[in-house]
Amino acid sequence: MTEIILMSDPKIAAIPVRDCDEPLLDVRRHDPFPVDTREQDDSGAFAHLREGVLSRLIDARKLLPDGIRLLFIEGYRPPALQRFYFERYAERLRNDNPGWSSEQVRAAASRFVSPPEIAPHSAGAAVDLTLVAADGKELDMGTPVDASPEASEGACYTAARNIDSEARGNRQMLAEALTEVGLVNYPTEWWHWSYGDRYWALATGTGHAIYGPRELD
Ligand SMILES: C[C@@H](N)C(=O)N[C@H](C)C(=O)O
Ligand SMILES: [Zn+2]
C-alpha cells in the first residue's frame, strides 16, 4: 500500500496558493443532487462549493450507474468552525493519550480533521459525499460518513480491508466517478474528496493550489 500523506504533513502547508477567486456557489440553487441536512447550519454555509468543484460533481453524476446518485453532505466550512473541530478532536486525543507529544497529537488529529490553516473545506474545495439508491437509501459504504478512525477501527480509511465486498464495491463506484472528473480523495476518509486545494495540488503534482481558505462573505 502506498504511504498516506496526512494533512498535517509540512509538504501540504508548503504548497503555495494562487487563489483564482472563483465564487462559492450554493449547490441547492443548482439542484444537481440531493443535499443532506445533517451538517446544515443557519447561514447555509455548508451547502457552498467553489464553482469548479460543483461543475465537476455535476459531470460525475453521469458516470454513475442508472439509479445511483450522489448525496451531498458538507462542502464549505468557515475557518472558525474548522478550528473548533480541530481543537476539540485534538483535545480528546490528548486526554486519551497523555504520553503523546504535540506533534503526535497534531498528526493523529489530522487523520480526521484538517489543521485549520490548510483546511480544504474552508477553501470551498472539499466535499463530503456518499451514494444513494433510487429510493433515497444510502448505499452500504462500510461505515457511516464521518466515522472516526477510533470509532470505526480504521474502517473509515478508503482502502480498509475490514469492510465487506459490497461496501468495497460501493466505495470503488464513488471513487471511479470522482477520480474521472479530477477530484482527489483523502485516504483516511472514503467520503472526503477535493479539487483545487493544497492536498489536491500535492496529489496531482500541480505545484500550487487554486483555492485557499476564505470567509463566505
Ligand atoms: C471532520 C471530517 N468531516 C472532515 O471534514 N475531515 C477532513 C479531513 C477535514 O477536516 O478537512
Ligand atoms: Zn471532508
Write up this protein.
- The protein has 217 residues and is an alpha+beta fold.
- It has one domain: Muramoyl-pentapeptide Carboxypeptidase, domain 2.
- It has helices at 10-13, 27-30, 51-61, 79-96, 102-109, 165-180, 198-204; strands spanning 24-26, 48-50, 69-74, 126-132, 184-185, 192-194.
- Helix 4 crosses helix 5 (102-109).
- The chain starts with 9 loop residues before the first helix and ends in a 13-residue tail after the last helix.
- Zinc ion binds at residues 121, 126, 128, 192.
Structural descriptors:
217 residues, alpha+beta, Muramoyl-pentapeptide Carboxypeptidase, domain 2, four-stranded antiparallel sheet, two-stranded antiparallel ribbon, 7 helices, 31% helix, binds the ligand C[C@@H](N)C(=O)N[C@H](C)C(=O)O, binds zinc ion
* CATH architecture designation: 2-Layer Sandwich
Secondary structure tally, helices: 7
Give the domain tally.
1
Percent in helix? 25-40%
Strand element count:
6
Strand order of the largest sheet: 3-4-6-5
**Biggest sheet statistics:** 4 strands, antiparallel
